[in-house]
C-alpha cells in the first residue's frame, strides 16, 4: 500500500475560494503531486479515513452500498460532484476480520442512515481530497471509513486489519488519512496549536508514528484537530514497516493547520501493537513518579483500586503532616479539560488527610452520580487535583470572594458546597446561585453562609 495524509479545506476549491484558494497555493501543488503519483500507481481501490462521515461514539463506520454520490453544495458550490462505487468485497473482509479481533466496526448503508435521518453521501473530508485525484485518475473503487473515538489500541489494531485485508485480496490499494491539524491557530491559545502542529509533523517526518500516541491528550483536545485518529489508524496499517514522511506542504492562512504528507517505505520496521498495549502502564508509573505528595496519594489510590490492591501509605514516603492533620478534602478528575468526577468532604471523615484523599479519590472515580464510573483505560488521560480545606466559618455575603473562598450554603438539612476559583464563576452572586441550586435551596428560601479556603494541589505543579 501507499500512504498519504491529505487536508480537506473546502476553500481550496476555486469555485468556493473565489481567489482565497491562492493562499493555499503550496497545498494545492502538494495535493496535485499526490494525485499525479496515484494516477501512475493505478490503484484498484482507495481507502480513505475521514472525520466527517457518519460517526458513532462506540464503533468505526464503514459505508457500504451499490454506489455513493457527493458534492460540496453545503459550501455553495454546485459544480463539484462525484459518484463512486464501493469495493464491497474488501468492505466485507474488513468487517469480518474486525469482528474476529473484537474491534467494534459497523457497516452502514443508505437505508440504515435514513433511520437516523442522515443522508447517504460523501462528506467533504472525502470529496476535497478526491477532487484532486479525480482530475487525474478515476478508475478505482472506494472504501469509506469514518473513525470513532475508540481506545488507541483499537484504532491501531483496526489499521492492522486494513493491512491484512488488503494482503488477503492482493489488491493494489492507496490509503489516505484525511484530516486537518490545529483549528485554533488564530485564538488566544494559539501557542498550543503551533506546538501541536510542529510536533505532529515532526513525528511524521521522522517516521515516529508511535509517538502520535504519546501526544498530550489535553493539548489535542484544546487545539480541536480532526486528523489524529485518521493517522492513528493509518499507523496501524503501516505496522511492521519503517516509513518516513515527506512533508510536501504545511500552511495555515485561515487559522487552521493544513499538512500534506506522502510516506516513503524504507524497509522492515517494528510491530507496534505491544507498545500501544503497554503504554498506559508505562505512562501511569511516569506520572506517579513526578507528582507532589497530595496528588501522588490520589493517583496511587486510583491505580491501586483498579489493581484491586490496598493503598499502603507510610510516613517514610510522605510528609508527616498528612498523617497528623484531619481536614476536609475534595478530589477532582478532569479529562480533556472537562470534569470527569469530583467528590469531597467539608469536614474530615477519616483519621488523617492522607486517608481522606484515598477515600475521596476512589469516590470521585466511581461514585459521582453525574458521570459513569471511570474505566481503568482512562487513568492516563485524567488530570487529578486535590483541594485541602480549612474549617468553614460563618460569614455574610459581603465577606465572600469566589476567587479566594469556597462557600457552603445550608437551609435545614439541605446543604450545597462550591470550591473557590472555578472556571466561569466571576461573581459572588454566581457562586451563591450555583451552590444553592446544588443544595436544592429555592430562590425565596433563606439560608446560612459559610466560607472556607483551600490549598490546591494539581498535576503539573
Walk me through what this model shows.
Pfam families: AMMECR1, LigB. GO terms for molecular function: ferrous iron binding; oxidoreductase activity, acting on single donors with incorporation of molecular oxygen, incorporation of two atoms of oxygen. InterPro entries: AMMECR1 (IPR023473), AMMECR1_dom_sf (IPR036071), AMMECR1_domain (IPR002733), AMMECR1_N (IPR027485), AmmeMemoSam_A (IPR027623), Xdiol_dOase_suB (IPR004183). It comes from Turicibacter sanguinis. The structure is a single chain. The model has no long low-confidence stretch (mean pLDDT about 90). The chain is about 35% helix and about 25% strand. The strands form 4 sheets. The protein has an 8-stranded mixed β-sheet, sandwiched between helices. A hairpin with a 2-residue loop joins strand 15 (about 405-410) and strand 16. The protein is of the alpha+beta class and about 450 residues long.
Fill in the keyword field for this structure.
oxidoreductase activity, acting on single donors with incorporation of molecular oxygen, incorporation of two atoms of oxygen, 18 strands, AmmeMemoSam_A, alpha+beta, 3 domains, 461 residues, AmmeMemoRadiSam system protein A, 14 helices, AMMECR1_domain, Glycoprotein, Type 4 Pilin, ferrous iron binding
Explain the layout of strands and helices.
Elements: E1 2-6, H1 14-17, H2 25-41, E2 45-50, E3 60-63, E4 67-72, E5 77-85, H3 88-100, E6 105-108, H4 110-115, H5 124-134, E7 141-146, H6 152-169, E8 173-178, H7 190-206, H8 217-223, H9 228-237, E9 241-251, E10 258-268, H10 273-290, H11 293-306, H12 321-324, E11 329-335, E12 338-344, H13 353-366, E13 382-389, E14 393-394, E15 406-411, E16 414-418, H14 428-439, E17 448-452, E18 454-458
Parallel strand pairs: 1-8, 2-7, 2-8, 3-6
Antiparallel strand pairs: 1-10, 3-7, 4-5, 9-10, 11-12, 11-13, 13-18, 14-17, 15-16, 15-17
Helix pairs in contact: 2-5, 3-6, 6-9, 7-8, 10-11, 11-13
Amino acid at each position: 500500500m501507499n500512504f498519504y495524509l491529505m487536508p480537506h479545506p473546502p476553500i481550496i476549491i476555486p469555485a468556493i475560494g473565489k481567489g482565497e484558494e491562492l493562499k493555499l497555493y503550496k497545498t494545492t501543488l502538494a495535493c496535485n503531486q499526490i494525485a499525479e503519483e496515484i494516477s501512475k500507481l493505478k490503484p484498484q481501490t482507495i481507502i480513505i479515513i475521514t472525520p466527517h462521515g457518519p460517526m458513532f461514539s462506540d464503533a468505526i463506520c464503514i459505508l457500504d452500498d451499490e454506489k455513493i454520490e457527493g458534492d460540496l453544495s453545503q459550501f455553495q458550490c454546485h459544480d463539484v460532484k462525484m459518484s463512486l462505487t464501493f469495493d464491497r468485497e474488501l468492505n466485507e473482509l474488513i468487517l469480518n476480520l474486525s469482528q474476529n479481533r473484537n474491534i467494534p466496526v459497523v457497516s452502514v448503508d443508505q437505508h440504515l442512515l435514513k433511520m437516523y435521518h442522515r443522508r447517504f453521501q460523501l462528506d467533504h473530508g472525502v470529496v476535497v481530497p478526491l477532487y484532486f485525484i479525480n482530475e487525474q485518475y478515476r478508475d478505482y473503487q472506494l472504501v469509506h471509513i469514518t473513525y470513532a473515538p475508540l481506545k488507541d489500541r483499537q484504532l491501531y489494531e483496526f489499521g492492522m486489519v486494513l493491512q491484512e485485508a488488503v494482503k488477503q485480496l492482493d489488491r493494489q490499494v492507496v490509503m489516505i488519512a484525511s484530516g486537518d491539524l490545529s483549528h485554533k491557530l488564530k485564538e488566544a491559545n494559539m501557542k498550543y496549536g503551533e506546538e501541536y502542529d510542529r510536533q505532529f509533523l515532526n513525528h511524521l517526518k521522522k517516521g515516529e508514528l508511535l509517538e502520535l500516541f504519546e501526544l498530550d491528550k489535553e493539548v489535542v483536545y484544546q487545539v480541536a484537530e480532526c486528523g489524529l485518529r485518521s493517522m492513528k489508524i493509518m499507523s496501524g496499517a503501516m505496522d511492521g514497516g519503517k516509513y518516513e514522511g515527506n512533508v510536501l506542504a504545511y500552511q495555515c492562512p485561515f487559522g487552521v493547520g493544513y499538512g500534506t504528507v506522502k510516506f516513503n517505505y524504507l524497509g522492515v520496521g517494528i510491530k507496534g501493537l505491544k507498545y500501544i498495549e503497554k503504554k498506559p502502564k508505562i505512562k501511569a508509573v511516569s506520572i506517579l513518579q513526578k507528582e507532589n505528595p497530595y496528588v501522588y496519594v490520589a493517583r496511587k489510590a486510583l491505580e491501586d483500586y483498579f489493581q484491586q490492591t490496598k493503598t499502603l501509605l507510610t510516613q517514610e514516603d510522605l510528609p508527616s503532616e498528612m498523617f497528623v492533620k484531619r481536614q476536609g478534602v475534595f478530589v477532582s478528575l478532569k479529562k480533556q479539560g472537562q470534569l470527569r468526577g469530583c467528590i469531597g468532604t467539608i469536614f474530615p471523615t477519616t483519621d488523617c488527610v492522607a486517608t481522606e484523599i484515598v477515600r475521596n479519590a476512589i469516590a470521585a472515580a466511581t461514585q459521582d452520580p453525574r458521570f459513569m464510573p471511570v474505566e481503568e483505560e482512562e487513568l492516563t488521560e485524567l488530570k487529578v487535583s486535590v483541594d485541602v480545606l480549612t474549617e468553614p466559618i460563618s460569614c455574610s455575603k459581603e465577606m465572600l470572594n469566589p476567587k479566594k473562598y469556597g462557600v457552603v450554603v445550608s437551609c435545614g438539612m439541605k446543604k450545597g458546597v462550591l470550591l473557590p476559583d472555578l472556571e466561569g464563576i466571576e461573581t459572588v452572586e454566581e457562586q451563591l446561585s450555583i451552590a444553592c441550586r446544588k443544595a436544592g435551596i429555592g430562590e425565596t428560601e433563606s439560608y446560612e453562609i459559610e466560607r472556607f479556603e483551600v490549598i490546591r494541589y494539581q498535576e503539573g505543579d
